[in-house]
Amino acid sequence: MGNAQPQLEMIWPKSLLDRPPHPRLGPEYALRIFDPDRDLAEYLSLVHEAGFTSFDEQRVTDCLQRVLPDGFYVVVHTPTNELVATAMATHNSLPRHPYGGELGWVAGRSAHSGKGLGEAVCSAVVARFLSAGYRRIFLLTDDWRLPALKVYLKLGFVPLLFEEQIAARWQAVCDTLGWPYAPDTWAGEAQAQRYR
User: How many domains does the chain have?
Assistant: First the structure.
């Protein structure tokens, strides 16, 4: 295990549990459900470009065992029919997130950055969890994934300050992004969902 730092965690706040986000895409993009028979090779290319290089066919098969029905989203660039963004809604009960739904494996092609694709796939996942009755929606991420962190914060996710060092890491992330650092507000949202 060594000295590896735990990943950052975020939760969907109690105040937004009755307000699902709505995916919005420009006219050249379409959101649809992943089709393993036609999308696998291109999906692997997409997630590899995003840095998830350990993903292979077996990893996708494993994910499909935990993904909610109609909860594995891809965005297609309609002029080229290329997969350009993705995210999954997976059931993933962890000690801090009993009965939890995890927004995971968010990826996008760099050639299409700045088009709101990450926000669209993440919105679709959150809306899917809420429609399935989930009250605890969370995600795991890394300090250096700044574009993704900004998307999550903008959507409404709040940081979970589960260790003292985590607070300092979030302070650094917020400073870098120019985002308000609000530990008291975040702690209140986390406490409200503690046993959900």
Answer: 1
- The domain that contains 163 carries what CATH number? 3.40.630.30
Computed over every residue of the chain, the mean pLDDT equals 92
Question: What pLDDT, on a 0 to 100 scale, did the predictor assign at position 71?
Answer: 97
Which amino acid is it at 147?
A: P
- Cα-Cα end-to-end distance for the chain: 30
**pLDDT reported for residue 99:** 87
Tell whether 3 is covered by a domain: no
Domain that holds residue 25: 8-192
Q: Which parts of the chain have pLDDT scores under 50?
A: 1-2, 194-196
Q: Is residue 1 part of a domain?
A: no
For residue 120, tell me if it sits in a domain: yes
Question: What's the confidence (pLDDT) of residue 187?
Answer: 82
Alpha-carbon gap, residue 72 to 64, rounded angstroms: 8
Helix (H/G/I), strand (E/B), else coil: 75: strand
Q: Please state, in angstroms and rounded to a whole number, the distance separating the CA atoms of residues 178 and 173.
A: 8
Are 10 and 157 in contact by the 8 Å Cβ rule? The answer is yes
Rg (CA), the chain: 16
Query: pTM for the whole thing?
Result: 0.92
